[in-house]
Amino acid sequence: MNASDSLAQNAALPRRTLVIAFLFCFLGLLADGADLMFLAYSLNSLKAEFGLSNFEAGSLGSITLAGMAIGGIYGGWACDRFGRVRVVTWTILVFSAGTALLGLAHNYWAFAVVRFISSLGLGSLFVACNILMSEFVTAKYRTTILATMQAGWTVGYLVATVLAGQIIPEHGWRVLFFTAVGAGLLCLALRPWVPESPSWLAARAQRSQPATSRGQAKVASGGLRQLLVDAPTRRMFLLWSLTSCFLLFGYYGTNNWMPSYLESELGMNFKSMTGYMVGTYTAMILGKVVAGIASDSFGRRVTFAAGAIGTALFMPVIVFWHTPDNILWVLTLFGFIYGVPVGVLATYMTESFSTQVRGAAVGTAYNLGRIGAAVAPAAIGLLATHVSIGAGFLVMGITYVITGLIPALAIPNRLYDPNREARSAKAATPAQATAQNPARPLGKPATEEGLG
């Protein structure tokens, strides 16, 4: 399906449909975020009941993130094969049922195996939600809307924080995991009201027609081979894979160990700790939304780099300069800045690749970055065993500096503009576009004239 078809279909969608699609994705990411934090808030309880070392406790987070990486890579393929809405539904059901089953686990290995399976759904959901909404939203407000949608993840952290603070002290960690069935029930209730992406429906209809030329057959084969062959595109892919790896190392390492750090090394009781985390995550929601607005106004590169390096600067503040009087505002400011690079990431990556390879490049680069996410919890657990959790936070500060420097020095701002690509496609039929642009090198931006 060409870009003009997609543009026309999206314009024809009623506002009510767009709102429903947004809410469906928002609530899906909310459930995703809550599920991740259930494990973080249960780590101390799991260590006590199963007799786990810090390294074993951290490895549960790494197992989760490894499953998310695998699920995310295949989630993009499943979206193209089975539909975006269907994949969102399946993934929510998989991780909500799997998380509820964790409440029945009685040893480390049973917990780890079930957690890995359920995390396949967690990884796929993020990919599916972003693809679905990106096909409903114009580029002009894409970062603002996607960042607001991704704030649902942080709202999920808040929900998990409130539930953990109320449930774990009184009823134990198992009951907390049982509450995950609510996400599956909510998904089943909303599913009939959510339409499939018109872009995907049109693409499926096009795939059902026999290819009439070798050129069409090559296009249908996908963009992964082209991604690896073209040197400029391959360079951009490698840069984003590295950036994602360092970003997700810091993001998930912090997310997984912050509750334990506040409770174990700062001496907070569990309910006080959850109260502080509520403040941090509330500020993170605002940070993501503001990051989206700033990115649409001032550019993706400067907003992303400022957020990453700002997060790095706050790590030593939390470790060395916290006091009982300032810890609340320190964590609140940290939460705001911590959300900025994550809020910008999806749009910034999307605009770094041409339409020919965008899906393969973004999906693969982001999920290769989950290698860093998978390593982080266990690595911080190892540091916690031999030094302290605070030492692990300082290491994550270094990774955040690298996260900000790579795009600041090497990744241009808005290398490709999806709206300009759409307008170019609308101005000419596919045959005319081919005649006007013969054998254009894949890595050369075709729509950037005048962008500056």
Count of helical stretches: 21
Average pLDDT, all residues? 80
The CATH architecture name reads Up-down Bundle
Global Rg: 22 Å
- Low-confidence runs: 1-11, 213-222, 428-452
Describe the fold and architecture:
The structure is a single chain. With 452 residues, the protein is mainly alpha-helical. Helix 12 runs parallel beside helix 18 (370-386) and helix 18 runs antiparallel to helix 19 (389-410). The protein has 21 helices and no strands. It starts with a helix and ends in a 16-residue tail after the last helix. The chain is globular and about 60 Å long. The model is unreliable at 1-11, 213-222 and 428-452 (pLDDT under 50). Helix content is 81%, strand content 0%. It has one domain (3-203, 223-429): Growth Hormone, Chain: A (Up-down Bundle), CATH 1.20.1250.
Defining key terms:
Growth Hormone, Chain: A; mainly alpha; 452 residues; globular
Write the layout of secondary structure elements.
Blueprint: H1 3-12, H2 15-50, H3 54-82, H4 84-102, H5 108-134, H6 142-171, H7 173-178, H8 181-190, H9 198-207, H10 214-220, H11 224-229, H12 231-264, H13 270-298, H14 300-320, H15 327-338, H16 340-350, H17 358-368, H18 370-386, H19 389-410, H20 418-427, H21 430-436
Helix pairs in contact: 1-20, 2-3, 2-4, 2-5, 2-6, 2-12, 3-4, 3-5, 3-17, 3-18, 4-5, 4-8, 6-13, 6-16, 12-17, 12-18, 12-19, 13-14, 13-15, 13-16, 14-15, 14-16, 14-19, 18-19
